[in-house]
Amino acid sequence: MALDLFSPIKVGSIALKNRIVMAPLTRNRAGEGNVPREMNVTYYEQRASAGLIITEATPISAMAHGYPATPGIHTEAQVAGWRKVVDAVHAKGGKIVLQLWHVGRISHPSLLPDNALPVAPSAIKPAGQAFTYQGLQDFVTPRALAAEEIPGVVAEYVQATRNALAAGFDGVEIHAANGYLLDQFLRDSTNKRTDIYGGDKVNRARLLLEVTQNVVAVAGADKVGVRISPLNPFNDISDSNPQDLFNHVARVLSPFGLAYLHVVEGGMGGSDLPPFDFVELRKNFSGPYIANLAYDKARANAAIAAGNVDLVAFGVPFIANPDLVERFARDAALNQADQSSFYGGTEKGYIDYPTLQG
Ligand code: PHB
């Protein structure tokens, strides 16, 4: 029988009951001190029938924050808050990994310690505005990280990984997608460095490689995934040769024996995207491949049956359907998501979407 979304799979050391992955989703509902709170526990617990939950992007340090009310993984209280989430998901038989996030230049001094400037590979201001506690404010020109500061950034990923493991997570996902810090180093519109972290693709991939090496050293490769988004222009980013760059990224990540590579296969928000062959990308990576972006059940099953992908991550459908797995199993209709309650707010539009059971 052909494989499909309901075929069990092991990604690294994590045994999954199905291939339906809950994508990382920023919801801006953490409590005081960016600590996960009761409604966050309920939200993830409701979705524990997913084969794998990837948490919302989670700042690894005080300098990694770029949005209000995102839950961190750099204080004791945050670790304790996440432990409640993990325990609730595990009690329901689910698996959950934490997404390690540093936003780089996609931040604002008002969100950072002592009104610091955001950090980035190069001092290039993104077009657009930051979401702050005071409302939308123009992005600022970030400060380029000195080469001597890079080991400190890598150390933040390592400490955050230790914290995630202490909270009981099944693993971690390194967020190297969507125009945030690691992606800012990868792509050549945002990385104009002239040291060993800039220039050709080998140099631009160096920081991701170092972060991966060091996170793998504390967690084990079989508990580490990486997320990339070769085409996504979100956060004012692009690359002059994405196929060549990301084929290289997949090639250098492959020998680690990671739990998975997770790929946003397009752009969030419509725009003209360059041609890109994701099947070719995948050929450069020997481990499990999670595809994401605008898949439905039929397309996901077809991609898995064809052997082009191993798992599929669903975002918006999981916001509106805590029982997405059961709905797919029964070919039931899906709830439509209310966009106005995606980011921030109360329990409304967060933990009140109905299941088939009512
Ligand atoms: C967002 O807050 O809109 C957001 C966060 C992380 C992502 C993508 C989008 O990777």
Concise overview:
The protein is of the alpha/beta class and 358 residues long. The chain is built from eleven helices and 14 strands. Residues 26, 57, 67, 177-178 line the site of P-hydroxybenzoic acid (PHB).
CATH superfamily: Aldolase class I
Please give the count of helices. Answer: 11
Oligomer: single chain
Strand content: 15-25%
Q: Give a count of the beta strands, DSSP E runs of length 2 or more.
A: 14
Identify low-pLDDT runs.
none
The order of strands across the largest sheet is: 3-4-5-10-11-12-13-14
Q: How widely separated are the two ends?
A: 33 Å
What radius of gyration results from the CA coordinates?
19 Å
Q: Which descriptor suits the 3D outline? A: globular
**Could you estimate the helical fraction of the residues in percent?**
25-40%
Could you tell me the mean pLDDT?
Answer: 98
Order of helices and strands: EEEHEHEEEEEHEHHHEHEHEHEHH
- Helix and strand composition category: alpha/beta
Main sheet: strands, sense, barrel: 8 strands, parallel, barrel
What can you tell me about this protein's structure?
Helices cover 29% and strands 16% of the residues. An 8-stranded parallel barrel has the order 3-4-5-10-11-12-13-14. The chain has 11 helices and 14 strands. Helix 1 links the parallel strand 3 and strand 4. The protein is an alpha/beta fold and 358 residues long. The radius of gyration is 19 Å and the shape is globular. The chain starts with 8 loop residues before the first strand and ends in a 28-residue tail after the last helix. The protein has a single domain, classed as Aldolase class I (TIM Barrel), CATH 3.20.20.70. The mean pLDDT is 98. The structure holds P-hydroxybenzoic acid. The site of P-hydroxybenzoic acid has 5 residues, from loops.
